[in-house]
Amino acid sequence: MSPELARFLQDCEQDFQQALPALCQPPGSDCPAVPGGLAEAGAYSLGNGGKRIRPVLCHAAAAALGAADRTRSAAPAHALELIHTYSLIHDDLPAMDDDDLRRGQPSLHRAYDEATAILVGDGLQARAFEVIAGSDVLDAAQKVAMIGVLARASGMQGMVGGQYIDIHATGTDMDLAALQAMHQLKTGALIRAALALGGIAAGASEAQLRALDDYGRHIGLAFQVVDDILDVDGDPSALGKTGGKDAAANKPTYVKLLGLDGARQEAQQLLQAALTALETFGASADRLRELARYIVERDR
Amino acid sequence: MSPELARFLQDCEQDFQQALPALCQPPGSDCPAVPGGLAEAGAYSLGNGGKRIRPVLCHAAAAALGAADRTRSAAPAHALELIHTYSLIHDDLPAMDDDDLRRGQPSLHRAYDEATAILVGDGLQARAFEVIAGSDVLDAAQKVAMIGVLARASGMQGMVGGQYIDIHATGTDMDLAALQAMHQLKTGALIRAALALGGIAAGASEAQLRALDDYGRHIGLAFQVVDDILDVDGDPSALGKTGGKDAAANKPTYVKLLGLDGARQEAQQLLQAALTALETFGASADRLRELARYIVERDR
Fold first, then answer.
1. Which of A87, A130, A161 sits opposite B34 (nearest CB)?
2. What ipTM was reported for this prediction?
3. Across the interface, which of A38, A118, A148 has its CB nearest the CB of B95?
4. All domains of chain A, ordered by start, with CATH?
5. Which residues make Cβ contacts (< 8 Å) with residue B10, sequence separation at least 6?
6. Over the stretch B56-91, which tens digit does the pLDDT of each residue have?
């Protein structure tokens, strides 16, 4: 990772650490306060951040389009992380993936209780749309476009649909096409939305949005292929979670279908395709290029 | 109930029965299909409609402001019912209120499974914001205003916050002020949002929105007071659910705090206050006036 990217990720994380937990306690005397325990539980999940890939991609997409700073991509970036965090909280529930740990900490329903985890997830989803609607630097047309993209990407024809397929596919056979289709919904749709939202924030043309989407489609799949590789071949202490879980749960994975070497080749091909999608962009897209490499070469 | 109101409710219900279940299977070749089982489960909940108070109030508020038909209030009305339906699905879960029946039918996690119920709820919430963003008869500023109101009303400082307080208050003592504060969040906020969204759809002034909100605040509380009365004094076959459940769960209720007669008086006073709030409106608000009476005098 270049010093520039490291610095950029650090700057982003500093903002996320400050801004995201505070979103659980919205200011304003005209609206009632969030109940204390609920705000605290929400802040617990938002503060325990992971790679923050989605909001970082959103900012990097805006930069690729010439945005001078993160001002206009801040609201959509925060909204993306709110949606991603709510989905992890609900995915960890006993009725879903039943995970006791998330990023090395007790998952929310273990740290609090199941009802709180369900409600925090529901509340973070609403807050995501509210954050975009309430931005004072985006115009109404941009907000509507972003909300439409984010709702579709995270809804039944996107992330939620992918999770539904995943839950019901465990223990069944799935070929490569079906596996890819599931991941395009489960993780791919929100990653593509991250690129679209950054592009909209910076006034991208239709052609530029298509190029960003093409990039997002490939790195979204690459992200999942690498996740599958790390589950088999990763260092549990770096991952902050137990490895080998997919195989134990008899989940369909890229490694299962392609073998470890085949999966590594697939990740490299997806990386190349993502870089090709950015060919028409100049040096302003270098951060997106480096993020693609980071996603494929990461060890956690 | 007047024949006019009965006809209006019937017309609304006909639209809801047709439009709402179809929202689980959004058209458009550019987006992936919703997985079949997920769409079916969503349609199950949306088709098994209750009183549809919120979308009906939204349409009636638009009519009070002079809207000639339901065209411009359709998207927000559908969005309100999507939010309400998702909240019922999640409230019924074992970790929350643990209800096996909803409107005389198995609740969604009983008819399907818990994971499906969590995911359908999540997906319906996203769809609510998508429906408003995607409307082709509202302008962008109206959509943004509606989405902001709906997200706040349904989020942690609204409906979700109220449900959090309710879940954690069962078995504890709560005085009248605390009970009202809880219901203003749990059910009141979304009912007030229904009025605001109908008002925004019809181009209401600030003063008109305040009057609608004042009306909504009072009927929202009245609605809950009557719910508490019916739980003690209602006909289980008309209600489609088991009565006496609140007392059995040792939940704080208006009847417990005010007695049955005191609760009936409270409902009448709230009805009068709601009607007073509409004083500056002419005959176009008669539907809202009749709905207020219907809410207080209903038997289910």
1. A161
2. 0.94
3. A118
4. 3-297 (1.10.600.10)
5. none
6. 999 999 999 999 999 999 999 999 999 999 999 999
